[in-house]
Amino acid sequence: MQERKTQSISDIIRERRSIRDFKPDPIDKDVIVSLLNDAVYAPNHGKREPWRFILFEGEGKKTFAEAVIDTYSPEQREKKATDMAAYYQNIPYHLIVVMPEDPRQKKWEEDICATSALIQNFQLLAWEKEIGVCWKTNLYSLEPSFREKVGVEPGEKIVGVLHIGYFEKIPKAKKRTLVEEKLVTINE
Ligand SMILES: Cc1cc2nc3c(=O)[nH]c(=O)nc-3n(C[C@H](O)[C@H](O)[C@H](O)COP(=O)(O)O)c2cc1C
Question: Which of 62, 92, 108, 114 has the fewest CB atoms within 10 Å, i.e. the most exposed one?
Fold first, then answer.
């Protein structure tokens, strides 16, 4: 593990990386719940707190893996089902974050913004504890069979599937464009 001296929010924001290679080392569920209890201080319009969580641990990760693999074509199944099942089992937690799909566009947009803010809060809080996260929006999230198997209710939207675990090494930062190149200032 590289030694990291994280101090400020800006350090954590800049340092955080999406983690795809996890150590299997267990993480206490209380830690995850505690991070989520901080993350819910995300801004949310109308104080709707539009999120709900489905956490997979232990044997539950098999349910998650089967739900994903069941969406594969026969060719995909042949090619990668075994590897993916092992990959998912090796990661300490999978967390599905859902929100209600409000038919009113304004509320739907506010709710996805709030839930995304919550997810980023969670990623940053986890990073502070040297826990890595990858936020996934793979197409399986849209498949009715997957949704049903993992307990997503009709009328709910999966905003993210988060894989959570300690990381082996920090991937290289992907550079961001300087804001000066994207900033328009209007002052008259
Ligand atoms: C809404 C959203 C959806 C994402 N979906 C995926 C995904 O399906 N698969 C994946 O590998 N990474 C996904 N990511 C992670 C991005 O690929 C990642 O943030 C980007 O490559 C920048 O890398 P960094 O997070 O390490 O800075 C997603 C990120 C966001 C914000």
Answer: 62
| pLDDT on residue 20 | 96
Which residue owns the Cα nearest ligand 1 atom 19?
Answer: 18
**Residue 45 is labelled as binding a ligand:** yes
Asked if the ipTM is above 0.90, the reply is yes
pLDDT at res. 168: 85
The residues spanned by each domain of the chain are 9-181
- The mean per-residue pLDDT over the stretch 115-140 comes to 98
- Return the structure tokens found at 152: 């997503």
Q: What is the pLDDT of residues 6-40, one digit of tens each?
A: 579 999 999 999 999 999 999 999 999 999 999 99
d(CA 55, ligand 1 centre) in Å: 20
Q: Which residue reads 């206490």 in tokens?
A: 28
- In eight-state DSSP terms, residue 100 is E
Closest CA to 157 of 97, 77, 78: 97
* Rounded alpha-carbon distances, angstroms, from residue 91 to 38, 76, 111, 155, 173: 22, 21, 28, 29, 22
What CATH class is the domain 9-181? alpha beta
Interval between CA 17 and ligand 1 midpoint (Å): 9
Q: Nearest C-alpha to atom 9 of ligand 1 is from which residue?
A: 136
Asked if residue 176 belongs to a known ligand binding site, the reply is no
137 is an annotated ligand-binding site residue = yes
How far is ligand 1, taken at its centre, from the CA of residue 107, in Å? 24
